[in-house]
């Protein structure tokens, strides 16, 4: 079997982990390695040695990582990404890999003393996601840019220019901005009472949230479930109420479908928010809204739920424009 973490991908992942470790260590994202590099040592060697010697906490050997070879890339990646949460007692263990997504892996973790949850989902972004970012220009219109502390970044600041130039520094910023945006969106929805997993914390390439599933299996996505027709209508209504709630908060999910809805014990929750758009400024918002609703309607139609996607979208959009939501 070809490892999902092949050597080709490893370079990038490892760099990300190293930079995150350096960031935590030094408290800023500047290229510290250049200043600490020994003679004749390449940047990569220096980064690798720093991570290995100083940054992977030896005591943190989660159940899932223990099953992997100590040299396995995924093991280092999981430990490196999550050890900060372990130190802070937000998680106490990583049990299993729940899903390998296009851009991120999700792991089932045990909540630590500092957490109210028994199980926590850790969504770990792969650094290479930047090469696959879903055509994100269309989503980003009108989005405020935030720095690592969540403060808004001034227009045309050096930081914004770095992001535009796609320097390493700029890419790191864009990465943390993307994750910060996802976290803020999920938090806004949770605070408003939407059906989303409660977001718990985020740092570096990781977002922690309430886990859907149990100690042995994760919740399925709706796309993998054959619903009983009797439960279809109420679940459809619930999802549409959430679409309406999001719009009342001026937002459109932007990637809603049966793939981004989890199903567990007859209930649903909506996930995956990095591409959420602000409907007050994004000219594509109405199109995204229509598409989101269409995909949900298409999923439920064979289960006997009859709904007119265009009609629902037009009505919702009109109410939104008239301030009636
Ligand atoms: N809170 C959670 N509890 C349990 N499983 C989760 C949770 N969040 C995500 N997952 C699982 O991880 C998968 C990937 O999550 P998500 O959709 O947020 O990331 P993604 O990288 O966009 O993935 P994809 O590209 O496959 O949509 C989900 O399809 C789901 O199976
Ligand atoms: Mg997804």
Structural account:
The model is unreliable at 1-39, 46-54 and 130-134 (pLDDT under 50). The N and C termini lie far apart (52 Å). Strands 1-2-3-5-4 form a 5-stranded antiparallel sheet, with helices on both faces. It folds into 2 domains: 60-210, Phosphorylase Kinase, domain 1 (2-Layer Sandwich); 220-321, Transferase(Phosphotransferase), domain 1 (Orthogonal Bundle). The chain is built from 12 helices and 10 strands. Helix 1 (7-26) runs parallel beside helix 5, helix 8 packs across helix 9 (168-191) and helix 10 runs antiparallel to helix 11 (285-300). Helix content is 45%, strand content 15%. Adenosine-5'-triphosphate binds next to strand 1, strand 2 and strand 3. Magnesium ion binds at residues 101, 259-260, 272.
Q: Low-confidence spans: pLDDT under 50, at least 5 residues?
A: 1-39, 46-54, 130-134
Widest β-sheet, arrangement of strands: 1-2-3-5-4
Averaged pLDDT: 81
Which small molecules are bound?
adenosine-5'-triphosphate, magnesium ion
Helix and strand element order: HHHHHEEEHHHHEEEHEEEEHH
What's the CATH architecture name of the largest domain? 2-Layer Sandwich
How many helices in DSSP terms? 12
| Oligomer classification | single chain
Name the helicity range.
40-55%
Rg (CA only): 21 Å
Query: What is the CATH superfamily label of the largest domain?
Result: Phosphorylase Kinase, domain 1
- Strand fraction equals 15-25%
Distance between the terminal alpha carbons, to the nearest Å? 52 Å
Sheet bearing the most strands, described?
5 strands, antiparallel
**Form type:** globular
